[in-house]
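Subject: two folds for Thursday's group meeting

Dear M.,

Sorry for the delay on this. The cluster queue was jammed most of the week, so I only got both jobs back this morning. I'm pasting them in the order they finished. Each block is the input sequence followed by the predicted structure tokens. Could you check whether the formatting survives your parser before we put anything on slides? The first protein is the one we discussed after the seminar.
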Amino acid sequence: MKFFSVLCFGALLFSTTAHAGFQAHQLQKNEVVKLDGKLDEAAWKLVTPHTNFFQTQPFDNVAAHLRTEVRVMYDDRFLYVGVTGFDNDPSQIRDSFARRDKISIDQDFFALYIDPSSGHKAAQVFYVNARGALMDGIYSDTSGDDTAPDYEYSASPARFDGGWSAEFKIPFSSIAYDKHSTTPWSLLVLRNMTRDQRYRMYSGAVTRATNCNLCFSNTIEGMQHLPSGMSWNVTPQLVARRAQDQVDGKPKLASSSKDVSLDFKLRPTSAITIDATLNPDFSQIELDSPQLSGNTRFGIFVQEKRPFFLEGADIFRTPLNAISTRTIANPDVGLRYTQRDADKDFSILTSRDTAGALVLVPQTYFTGYATSQVASTATDARANFRLGSLSLGGVLTDRQYAQGVGYNRVAGPDFVWQIDRNQLMRAQVLMSTTNAQMNAQGNLARANTTNGHAAYFDWSRGNDAWGMSVNLRDFSKDFRADNGFFSQVGFRSINSEVTKKFGRTGVLNEFNTYISAEYKLDSEGNVLSKILTPGVRIAGPFDSSAYLNLSPTVRSRVNQDGELFSIGRVAGGFAASPGKQIARIATDFTVGDVIDIMANRLGRGGSYSMSAKLRPIDRLELEPSFATNWIERDDQQSGQTSERTYKETALQINSILHLSAKDTIRMILQDASTKRDPKAYQQAVASHSSRSVSSFVYTHRAGVGSAVYLGWTVTKTDTPGFVAKRKQSELFTKFSWQI
């Protein structure tokens, strides 16, 4: 009987959403919308609201406990969306200050997922919180939100006795779509609110088990004769900087410069975007968080933040990181073409990278790095065709090094098949050819041509009771992708996970047990790793979550000729959103056996990390984070039971002071240090190394592309006995204005 009830409820949800689309009203010449968040104009009252919202968190498969209304209108230039969220206790609405793209789950916000193709593969997303902060970007179910892209749009909130509302005004020139498509657009609206629980409410019957949130989007009916005229903008930028460089024992060096850069964007039609950049400057980009890297063999992926590379970034995403624009280290010119049609996407990017960049040369047991002493031209192309639930794509990348140094080229197909709303299959095959090889001096030089391949397959399926996934990889040892990110090659692996979901249990919103496994071989057939990890995950009040897993018999090899170590370890973590002042806290830990990679030796140790998002006063955001790992080993010769041979720490305090809606001061303090006991290593090692960074940036943001920045950064590095102490400082002013 219970099964029959659930089945009927599920059928009701899907039958409801199938006919519960958004009805768009076309504004007439005499109808005007004042963007104040109030939805009190007569035109809004002519729109039939969409009110079918469903709760996904904390409880799943239930109707939303609060009413939310969504209305859609448009004219010949803008798309208008009005959202009204009713609240039983409006005094609890969390309307925190937030800078652009930093809205978080501890706040009340509305989000629009707009998919003009209705392909349910990716969507442009537009957020506004109850204070009026904005966040935008690209969303896909496989990669989540990428909030780096910025679009021109406006949104304004308003409070009323029974809750809050917001009006979005989005230029059609900010949305990529095919005007000639007869397929209606799709829209998914998310309402987020956090109190004693985090409530996630969607305009479609999204479930926690699904791996396709966008499949629950509803169509926007009634939009026709959309604009497709040409639009363009030019953003000149002027940067003035003064720098000092002081190395112990050497004279202080000082320099100053003034540089002009130019960004150009042209949209000849609604489906096509052409971007160009000349001498781009990224001095205002927020510092990457320090990461623990002293006891790792492989390169660490860093997210792209630079504006020029973000147009159409979702098109470049594939199951493998075949394209990573962070490999373009210091571009002086770039050109990009992006086209989005109803059934396909295409993008090609070419950029000239100046000399001196580091190039990843992945190996089986470590990531090597070569220096490109010459400039290079990086070209990336990606096409993606949508055939219903199946998406077929292809990638082509080329890195051509100047002065005859050589090239690296990669090409291959991929597919994504959304079998149903809870089942996904993906695969990709890449072939590479390279004749720019690393020489004995660590530089790239022309040499013999090598060819390699990389293959990937994964499958996942879930429902309310079970979840399972399988992942296969096969990378040949000669595969290389200079325009992508691959830290390891020369292996084959299979990973799998099975989860048993018990649903709501007592005070817990979720209680899941799982077991994950990995089996990995190098190209010679030697075992790289064997892992079997049972664990438990739970979720509870205050958007809290925790996990604990045990890996009693991990087998791992870190050196081709080294021992296959047997390791036992325990890992866990906890996160919660206690309140407005302590918006988020999180911690993770691992304890047990640890391999000291540099010494190829097993020790006892672990790692832990802590992070928080704090608002001690309304206008101040603090985001401290700390991470450390350590290794101890038995030392019978010294008579001690153990001694610490290695310790690494990384600290960052990121603070934002909101002077006004347009003016902020960002202050970042970073400190990273590594300590080793030289007696524990056969090779010479530094007993201590440190790096600290202090950054201060004042920003006045007049709009997308128009801003003034004043910044100051000081970096100090010290590795006694190996590298002299060094202090670098820079003062810069940047003016950016969009025409």
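Second protein, same layout:
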Amino acid sequence: MASINSKVIFVTTSPRTPSKMIPEIELLNAHFAGQKWNKETQLAFMELLKEENFFNGEGAKDPSFSARDRINRAPKALGFVTLSPKIQLTLAGEELINSKRKEEIFLRQLLKFQVPSPFHKPTESSAEFWVKPYLELFRLVRHFGSLKFDELRIFGLQLVDYREFDTIVEKINQFRIAKAEYVGNYKKFRAEYLDNEIREIYEADINSGNTKTRQTNDASISKFIKTKASNMRDYADACVRYLRATGLVNISHYGKSLSIVPEKSEEVDFFLQNTDRDPILVDNERQYVTYLGNPLIPTLLTDNRKLLEQKIRSEFPLLEISATATLQDLKNIFADELDNRREQILTDQVSAIKDYRQFEEISTTFDQIITNSLYDNPLMLEWNTWRAMTMLDGGNIKANLKFDDFGNPMSTAQGNMADIVCDYDDFGLTVEVTMQGGQRQYETEGEPVTRHLAKFKKETEKPAYCLFIAPNINDSCIAHFYALHKMNIQYYGGTSTIVPLPLSIFIKMVEDSYNASYVPEPRHVQRFFERSNELANSTENEVDWYNGITKEALNWLTE
């Protein structure tokens, strides 16, 4: 049981991206099911996790803590695993791994998550919790139609008791009025408003001098408020990512706002009207675990045959529904049709991209990423780079990120695969992107990038290269990738041709493709990477190689 000492909504924040827990609990179950969850199994789990690349090197100082951070938080709190008396997947966990439509599994579990619960007990100094956080956040988004990230962060997180829903709504209304009347810089207005709200939320702590935060001896009020503001940003970000995992919520990356997917509004209205808002089984862990792990509750619109048939007919009016089809048959049919529609949308997008019809939009998105104007820059960088690679040249370009039912990017690729893979018939290419900079870039990306390329070469059995893109390239990455050009390592399938390029240089390559008097071909891509091999073998050091290949990138289409 965990004690909660928070005065704002408590939600799960690890893993940051919900889909990341799927391969992790699958790995846990495959190797440790039936065993005790203790330091020994935690250390062993972390060793396996590192090998699978699901975990990018964080928490190396205390691997057992890192294991608990990955499993004891979201997987346990959302009812996908039980850890006592032994490690075991719940029925909901098995469904998450095996189900074709994982969004529905996430939805049911999020709607059941509650505070207080047998897993999470508020302390005397915390807020007086009585809420199913995700259920009420769905309600808040649905109520307003569109909810800004700032509104979620400043006010939505104060919804610690569902009976205060109307109070929070009024606070947001007053914020919007004040914002409309304010003359001046919005960031200053937001900062002042956030400061005032934090002072109100933590008034008792401030008045009593209880302002020292963890990992610092600074007890100043300014440091205290800054820390709480940062924590609230992290909690709000986690809320967005987990709500998004249900496939029911759209996010405007530029406007930084949430809304219900129009085609999903009936489904949202159904569970808002039919799901009990009160936490249950607060003091009965055994029954709570059974309830939480049940993948069939709460009831959703798709569990009602009549309503499901109406839903299918409204979205796919030409589809014939057999009277003998079971409810599960109908669910499978609906899932297949949604998948087919998404694939057709993506196919149409690719056609438009290859015809350069989206060049200006792709260029604008890169500009917004560089200026940090979008909500989720890592996701948008991965998605926009896929679009740019699709436009750049021929080949079958596949993004390993998660798309929603309407072809919009939902979450980045899982950690055990390259972000983008390109098949050019005679050779292949992996593309890895990151917003990380500094030494952190090398620590989290260096080895996984190399391993992804090795895996790709083994699977395709043909020559392959890798393009590594980041806003800025760290010197350690340059040295690492230069050395791999020359080192014949059997574990990585021989030498590894990995070319790191700053995002600005890659954008110039895309512009050159658009402005060329001919359509670039795969041979131009291969020629560029083979030139990297030549430079690696003819230069004295990594600096000369990097400068040389960067210059080549700026003239990659010169015959």
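Two things I noticed about the second structure. The chain has 23 helices and 14 strands. The mean pLDDT is 90.

Cheers,
T.
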